[in-house]
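Give me structure tokens for this 624-residue protein.
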Amino acid sequence: MGSTFSGIELGKRSIMAHTDAITTAGHNISNANTEGYSRQRVQMKEFDPLYKPDLERAERAGMIGQGIDTQSINRIRDELLDGRIVAQANQESYWQTRSDYYTMLEQIYNEPVDISIRSNMDKFWESWQELSMNPESQAARQAVVTRGVTLTDSIKNRWEGLSGVANIIDGDIEATMRQVNSITAQIAEVNGEIVRSKAMGDNPNDLLDRRDLLVDKLSQLINVTTDRRDSDEFEVHVDGKILVQGSVAREFALAPKFDDTGYSKLIWADTGSDAHFSGGKLGALVELRDVDIRKEIQSLNTMTMNFSDLVNDVHRNAVGANKVTGLDFFVQHSFVENANGNFDRDGDGELDTSYIFRFTGNNALDLQQQVGFEGVMKLSGANGDVEIPYYHTDTVETVIARINDSTSEVKAYLDKNNHLVLKGTTALHEENPDFVIRHVEDSGYFLAGYAGILRGAGEASAYDFAQADAVMALADGSQYAVSPVYNPSAYVEVNPAIRNDVMSVAAGYKDGNSGVATGDGRAAVEIAAIRNSQVMVGGLKTFDDYFADAVTNVGLMGEQAEMNLMSQNSIMDDLRGLRDSISGVNIDEELADILKFQHGYNAAAKFITVWDNLVDTVINRLGV
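Here you go.
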């Protein structure tokens, strides 16, 4: 039954409930500028009434109310909207990172016109043209050497610029990885605290806000999704793999890459398997370093190798004013000192691989001549060997074009002596070395007896680099060149022998007396003509194609990053604005609530005063 003092208890509950509401509103105002904070609301409910319907109920009016009670304090949050923000945030940071670094790359390519690689190469060609008109001039030879040195210096400067950006990105990758590991560890720790709090019947709003803020920060670094289906084991996934499960967090680590860059790759610390990311800052950094900048450096290396090789092809067959011949104008550092290109690739102490860059056949060919037989060549490609058929009605030019238009990582052309040349290009995949011919095979006789590169036809006579002394498969009299070191654009230079004696610059060819006829500038003309020749520079045709493609590619990629960043910023601004409208603190609203709850508090206090007077009348004034 009801108590004489029940009214005081009812008033007390009302005061406590309104106190909770006022305190919560004050908490909201205090955290109005706290990052990640969600406004909170007190959920009130009627206290259990007297005389519930049961068999022991008193014979009087039942369901007498006993006031109010605080049921819970909830944060105002839209979990569906949160999930969308987490899923979208990685794209914003992805494009932000790409935009920032492409700005740096554009600065490397936006060289002043008078000192750019292209202008220095134009001056180099002009110096050879001048030498062709004055083949006896020492000053013209000095100009060739000086401009050659200037050109190689500008090539090295561009490589250093690209390599410098790659080094910055590599350091950023390590720092970002450590940041990811730190955040995931914090999420796991907060998960444990949340589970313990909920087990005590509490509603840990501030801990939930902290976890959501950590997830938001993590979603900017890598592409993550969350799973809230199990309240005791909140999960974070990245690319379908569990990153955080409850109070357990997995970590990332670094492992050496099997190449000559000196960089490390990301792995899962617990399994050692490679870690891949398709978005976020970390995904953008890895892609920039291992794809974008690698491609730019490979393109520069390809231009450098083809440029120097074509100049050397003419120069070594020509004669200098001092009657010296056989000199390369440009020199590179070979990958290995072994004459056959043998290399210990797996580090077990035994030579097991052949690193060869160029094959030159021993037979002179005619571009317009029909080959007269058919077969299928197999040349190394990005994903296995590429089959290239040829037919008896094909001309030599057709077969060469078919090789160059294929997806193989081998290119072909005829040198100045009309001998077929095969060159290794840069490799698409990092596990394959650049400028290394990995496989050459011909079921017919185009590469064997006709061009004079392979010793024989068929699989048994194929060249394969995965063995020492693989050059034994080449035909007698054919020539080959050992592959250069990892970045030829970093090491190319004018031959010191030519720099020390400019009269070694070869402008003409031998006459019948093993000398050079007076006024012979044929070699200089041929070198100058390379400027506009249809040569293969990777997948491009001319050196002008290379320069146009290099600048255009960086500009377009930078523009793409900027446009996508603007789009993602707009999307995220809308999403965050919507979240703020739901979860953000409105100080005016909170002040209005405080006034409302204050009036409720005052009314409850007045009710207790009235009840106190009633009780005082019963106890002290009845006169019983």
